[in-house]
Amino acid sequence: MDPNTGAGSDGDGTPVGRRLVLGMLGLGAGAMAAAPWLQGKLETALGAVADKDPTGVTGLLPNGGGFRYYSVTSSVPHKDADSYRLTVSGLVDKPGAYRLADLRALPQTRLVRDVQCVTGWRVPETPFEGVRLSALLDAAGVRRGAKAVRFTCFDGAYSESLTLEQARRPDVLVTLKLRDKPLGHSHGGPVRLYVAPMYFYKSAKWLSGITVTDEVRPGYWEERGYDVDAWVGRSNGRDDDPTA
Amino acid sequence: MTPPPERTTTPAPRAGERDGGSRVLRFSPAERWIHRTTALLLGACVVSAACLYLPALAELVGRRALVVTVHEWTGILTPLPALLGLVSRAFRADLTRLNRFGPHDRRWLRAALRRDHRPQERPAGKFNAGQKLYAGYIAGAVLVMAGTGLLMWFTGLAPLVWRTSATFVHDWLALAIGIVLLGHIGKALADPEARRGMRTGRVERAWAAREHSLWRTDEDARERRER
């Protein structure tokens, strides 16, 4: 020890560094154990703050609430009332294409449900409005032998699927409005699918094609390991509260 | 404010010292490569994380499957350079220096908490107490991120409640790491000589005497042995 500085030579002394590393590991394990409780507390607290936060910063924090933007392609073209088309094809009597105005002219259904993403985030009581998918299927005339519906998107890559029985549910919409406003591009506008009882990856954004098929063809994420029958709380190894 | 007292005089260049006298060896080539590759991996990991997480960037970049792959692999490989670096004796010696805290480190930390910048209140060996704390923190944090990341990556590894908890820890610790990393980069940007040390391996002797007054360089040690 140097009597003038009170310093030991470099490399002697208490092994604080090692304790710090082990402490971080312990803290991580402890936070894992406390996470279910902590997460609930934080969600409540952040939710309260977010209600009064004009900057929107709380929305960026973990568990801060709100939608997240996920796209599987590098860029997605923009479609408007002129350029947008929704085709209906496959095992149907009357294949055809809808313009945005055609869809708007059909009877609209409004649903208010929670949105649950398979990665964990949930957006409570969100109003969706649009045309029931079953109405479009009935108008096209589904042929005998049809078993499923495949959805394709104008981002050029995404796809989804439902069994015919699932597709005919009254809480499956071809959505034109979110939160009572026309569906914006970042939310999958002008038209997206909304499958209320399933995880949100089933609700394909930028919907451009509905094809009736004789078997279920797994969609984009389903080829990458996600469940095809994506019921909220009963699939993908998750136990979230059901959304429908 | 009282003027800073006389510093200990910088030793004159000594005979037998290599590379032009006034610059001393701080980091060996192995150590610089460890730092460089770790920075590259962790940097790519952080950038890809931002592209997955921040809505504005996610919208700009898209390509989610690709970005996820980049994030997973750069993340899990981040500890690798340091592990491989354990074959370097200089690196192992520096890990020992980073690990051990002496009385002078307590003094340095107390001064830092008081925002006291006088050099004589900031005694430091090769690494000051702040650098030591940063090293321990980031090493532990990277390991926790790797562990929680693996639980999310390989969903079959553990029951669901673990995965939800891992996501929670991963997200919040990411925020904490981001803030501390910005501090690390800010400190480097503020001190060109420290950056030169990491880039070229050598630093000005005067800088070393000022910032790391208790550091006995390898050259000092060799000289002492030779005497």
Automatic annotation (TrEMBL), chain A:
Cited Pfam families: Oxidored_molyb
InterPro entries: OxRdtase_Mopterin-bd_dom, OxRdtase_Mopterin-bd_sf
Signal peptide, first to last residue: none
Residue ranges of domain Oxidoreductase molybdopterin-binding in the record: 75-221
Protein's UniProt name: DMSO/TMAO reductase YedYZ molybdopterin-dependent catalytic subunit
Source species of the chain: Streptomyces iranensis
Species lineage: Bacteria, Bacillati, Actinomycetota, Actinomycetes, Kitasatosporales
TrEMBL record, chain B:
Membrane topology note: Multi-pass membrane protein
Metal-binding found in the keyword field: no
Transmembrane segments: 39-58, 70-91, 134-160, 172-190
One protein family per Pfam: Ni_hydr_CYTB
Species this protein is from: Streptomyces iranensis
Region listing for Disordered, in residue ranges: 1-21
Subcellular location: Cell membrane
Residues covered by the Cytochrome b561 bacterial/Ni-hydrogenase domain: 26-192
InterPro entries: Cyt_b561_bac/Ni-Hgenase, Di-haem_cyt_TM
Keyword set, alphabetical order: Cell membrane, Membrane, Transmembrane, Transmembrane helix
Protein name: Formate dehydrogenase subunit gamma
Major location category of this protein: membrane
